[in-house]
Specification:
Radius of gyration: 20 Å
CATH architecture: Alpha-Beta Barrel
Structural class: alpha/beta
Number of helices: 12
Strand order of the largest sheet: 4-5-6-7-8-9-10-11
Order of helices and strands: EEEEHEHEHEHEHEHEHHEHHHH
Largest sheet: 8 strands, parallel, barrel
CATH class: Alpha Beta
Helix content: 25-40%
Number of domains: 1
Shape: globular
């Protein structure tokens, strides 16, 4: 379901009734503690300016995580939205280490319930709109994890739950357990998906469409690689996180990355916009995608990225971007394309066309 208010487009988050803006504010730059200093060091005043800009443009989803700067990002976000709580959909995450103890990480009932209380305190709120498991925990039974999340919903501390960085079989197993035990299902998955990294199209996008989950995309500009600053023959910008130990996402084929950026920049020149806007607009055309979680170090960068919500690419331009960023079909998809294309579901067609 798609709606539009004040120029911003809103999409239904999976099968839930919750509508979120197609652009979301990411807060990994908030705090600047520890290794997160390589990403940014936004303080409270700057966070307020960035969030005010987002709200003025119609953004209603703000995403954070307890592990970002070891809780500082949540604290800064909470102070920045204190007077505007009802205008935003607050999303945070649980899973990563928040201390050195044996129960300070993972998705056990013990850690989830305590971590949620800590996030509520740091954010200064009574409830979290979207509580996401930040990654897979293969050592905790899914029944325990999902029951703990369901408990939080029944207690009113959480409205909806989602997952992040799951493989497709992890996700399907979790959904099956939720259906069997009548726990609240995940309404969304937050994944990495860009022109530079399209692996999600093989399994994660189809399962989201088949099972009715919204897709939130983290680092949709591949950590700045698709900003237009990374060009063949040019040195990396001094502010690039890829010059630090923070080299996420990995670059497996630098020449192909340069080819992608050249096409995005050429299309951007036609529209009078940045390669970053073109890269983001391409993602918003992809099946299943609900919202792009963008982070920014300053207001100019944020404003440029937000403008991608208003950029309309032609089918020819999307096809050009598809072609330059395409990856070979892995097995069993090439076999399905050759011998099963007469009976494809809508989810299948996102992979096999």
């Amino acid at each position: 379901m798609i709606a539009e208010y004040g120029g911003m487009e809103y999409r239904q988050l999976g099968r839930s009734g919750l509508r979120v803006s197609v652009m979301a504010m990411g807060t990994m730059t908030f705090g600047g503690r520890g290794g997160f200093a390589n990403v940014g060091n936004t303080d409270v005043e700057q966070a307020r300016r960035l969030i005010d800009l987002c709200l003025e443009r119609g953004v209603n989803l703000i995403d954070t995580a307890d592990v970002y700067s070891q809780g500082a990002a949540e604290e800064i976000l909470g102070q920045a939205v204190k007077e505007r709580r009802q205008e935003v959909v607050l999303a945070t995450k649980v899973r990563m280490p928040m201390g050195g103890g044996p129960n300070d990480a993972g998705l056990s009932r013990q850690h989830i319930l305590r971590a949620c209380e800590d996030s509520l305190r740091r954010l200064g709120v009574d409830y979290i709109d979207l509580y996401q498991v930040h990654g897979w925990d293969g050592q905790t039974p899914l029944e325990e994890t999902l029951e703990a999340l369901d408990t939080l919903i029944r207690k009113g501390q959480v409205r909806y739950v989602g997952c992040s960085n799951y493989s497709a079989w992890h996700l399907m197993k979790a959904l099956a357990v939720s259906d069997r035990d009548r726990f609240q299902r995940f309404v969304s998955q937050q994944i990495h998906y860009t022109l530079q990294a399209r692996e999600a199209e093989h399994e994660l996008v189809p399962v989201a469409i088949d099972q009715g989950l919204g897709i939130l995309v983290w680092s949709p500009l591949a950590g700045g690689l698709l900003s237009g600053k990374f060009r063949r023959g040019h040195e990396l910008p001094e502010t690039s996180r890829h010059l630090t130990e923070w080299n996420e996402p990995p670059v497996h084929d630098r020449d192909k990355l340069y080819d992608i950026v050249e096409v995005a920049a050429r299309i951007g020149d036609v529209h009078g916009v940045s390669a970053a806007q073109v890269s983001l607009a391409w993602l918003l055309r992809k099946p299943g995608v609900t919202s792009l979680v963008i982070g920014a170090r300053n207001e100019d960068q944020l404003a440029d990225n937000l403008a991608a919500a208003e950029l309309s690419l032609s089918d020819v331009e999307v096809a050009q971007l598809d072609e330059v960023s395409a990856t070979p079909l892995p097995y069993p998809y090439w076999h399905q394309q050759n011998f099963a294309s007469d009976r494809l579901s809508p989810a299948d067609r996102t992979v096999l066309g």
